[in-house]
Design goal:
The protein has helices at 18-46, 51-73, 94-102, 107-130, 138-161, 186-205, 208-212, 214-229, 235-239, 258-286, 292-311, 321-330, 336-350, 352-359, 363-386, 394-411, 424-427, 430-446, 451-466, and strands spanning 87-89, 166-171, 174-179, 317-319. It is mainly alpha-helical and 468 residues long. GO terms for molecular function: xanthine transmembrane transporter activity.
Length: 468
């Protein structure tokens, strides 16, 4: 009898020792934390909620983030992509929610109702969105992933600058944008540069586990220097409670209004198409083949996470692209890292004092790390595009024009201001614009391939890129 062949465990499913998992998971949490708490902070202030209610929104967001991450990375029957994914509130929903917040008849409870409806909608349409896989050959996926990285670079640059060039605040009852006087201060830029240098030094001279947590060690070094310079403050940590329970419907029973529901469902479609690109990018980075059924489970998890968000007093969820860049930098592909990250987020949601401690990390510190991570996403897209056949020059047009459209919201955020307001959720995402244009141009020039042809082409491109 021949010996039984045991299939080796894929790196995505490898269970690392807990002493390695915890620092790697903390690294993921630190990378996504600023983005995770930004939306509830902005919405809470726009609604003029009390500081206690805003703090509860943030705790609820972290708690729901953790649950959604566990569903996506660990998986439940029929749901979850089971890749190293961290879930967070999508910024695509911010504009529509601020409009809802300004409508007295909608308000916070109306926002929660529209989020619940959008989550149910996402669960229903997930199998139909996942069937779009043949529309994403390497020339399309590579272009989208490149734009994802370029779009994220703006986030990393603003982190390094200390926030946003303009800040959103309510003055005399009106929500407006004002110049941020703290942006791009020399001390902050120097601190971001210090973090970047530490990370690069560790990537060059360290190996093994230390190299894997280079980003975390860079952030820790940056926090130590920030504390020494008096730039890291712990006032909120001292005032925060040690423990608080996050309960559904904390603010009351959600209300449901047709127009906000339709708007949020459109946002959900935007989010799911962006997630499709994230999942394909992660498949390329981790070397895990992503099938249509995997995409369905991943997109369904977006819907389930959004439903949970509405129930637990928070907002729509999506896979955070900044964590995709971290996977590329560390080379650690195990989904168990983000599973532990999900557990940490739940704990942070239940322990406001710990959440406040993480929140105290200055954005400039995260900026130094962001420049490394987000550039890795763009580099992954470039690597995929290197495997594309350009003898047929039409592929050059697909890449060139799609990138041009994807850059519009980044270069000129008001470019589409005179178009109908209802289209803004679709037009303000450079990733979505790039995806739509790349798909349409590829169909126009190259036609539609069968699912089998698309999978074979993607596998061949992945193999070529792996050896590039």
């Amino acid at each position: 009898m021949s010996p039984t062949t045991i299939s080796p465990t894929h790196a995505v499913d490898e269970k690392l020792p807990l002493p390695r998992l915890i620092p790697l998971a903390i690294q993921h949490v630190l990378v996504m934390y600023a983005g995770a708490v930004a939306v509830p902070l902005i919405v809470g202030r726009a609604l003029k909620l009390s500081p206690e209610d805003v703090a509860f929104l943030i705790s609820a967001d972290l708690f729901a983030c953790g649950i959604a991450t566990l569903i996506q990375a660990y998986g439940i029957p029929g749901t979850g992509i089971r890749l190293p994914v961290m879930m967070g509130v999508t910024f695509a929903s911010l504009g529509p929610m601020l409009s809802m917040a300004a409508a007295p008849e909608v308000g916070l409870l109306g926002i929660f109702g529209s989020v619940i409806a959008a989550g149910i909608f996402g669960i229903i349409v997930a199998p139909f969105i996942s069937r779009l896989l043949p529309l994403f050959p390497p020339v399309v996926t590579g272009t989208i992933i490149l734009i994802i990285g370029v779009s994220l670079m703006r986030v990393g640059i603003n982190w390094a600058g200390g926030g946003q060039p303009t800040i959103t605040k309510v003055v005399d009852g009106v929500l407006g944008a004002f110049p941020n006087p703290a942006y791009a201060q020399l001390q902050g830029l120097a601190l971001a540069g210090f973090v970047l240098v530490v990370i690069l030094a560790l990537l060059k001279w360290a190996d093994g586990f230390v190299r894997n947590v280079a980003v975390l060690l860079g952030i820790v070094a940056g926090c130590l220097l920030a504390g020494f310079l008096g730039l890291m403050h712990f006032d909120k940590v001292g005032k925060a409670a040690w423990f608080d329970v996050v309960l559904p419907f904390h603010f009351g029973r959600p209300t449901f209004h047709l127009v906000p529901i339709v708007t949020m469902c459109i946002v959900m479609i935007v989010v799911m198409i962006e997630s499709l690109g994230m999942f394909l990018a992660l498949g390329e980075i981790t070397g895990k083949k992503v099938e249509q059924d995997d995409l369905t489970r991943g997109l369904r998890a977006d819907g389930v996470g959004t439903l949970i968000g509405g129930l637990f007093n928070t907002f729509p969820y999506t896979s955070f692209s900044q964590n995709v860049g971290l996977v590329g930098v560390t080379g650690v592909r195990s989904r168990w890292v983000t599973v532990v990250g999900g557990v940490i987020l739940i704990v942070l949601g239940l322990l406001p004092k710990m959440a406040a401690l993480v929140e105290a990390v200055p954005q400039v510190v995260l900026g130094g790390a962001g420049l490394v991570m987000f550039g890795m996403v763009a580099a992954t897209g470039a690597r995929i595009l290197a495997s594309v056949d350009y003898k047929n020059s039409n592929n050059l047009f697909v890449v060139a024009i799609s990138i041009g459209f994807g850059m519009i919201p980044l270069v000129s955020p008001t470019f589409f201001k005179n178009l109908p307001h209802d289209l803004h959720p679709l037009l303000e995402s450079g990733i979505l614009l790039c995806a739509i244009v790349a798909v349409v141009l590829n169909l126009f020039f190259n036609g539609l391939k069968s699912s089998e042809q698309a999978k074979a082409e993607a596998a061949s491109a992945a193999a070529t890129a792996e050896h590039a």
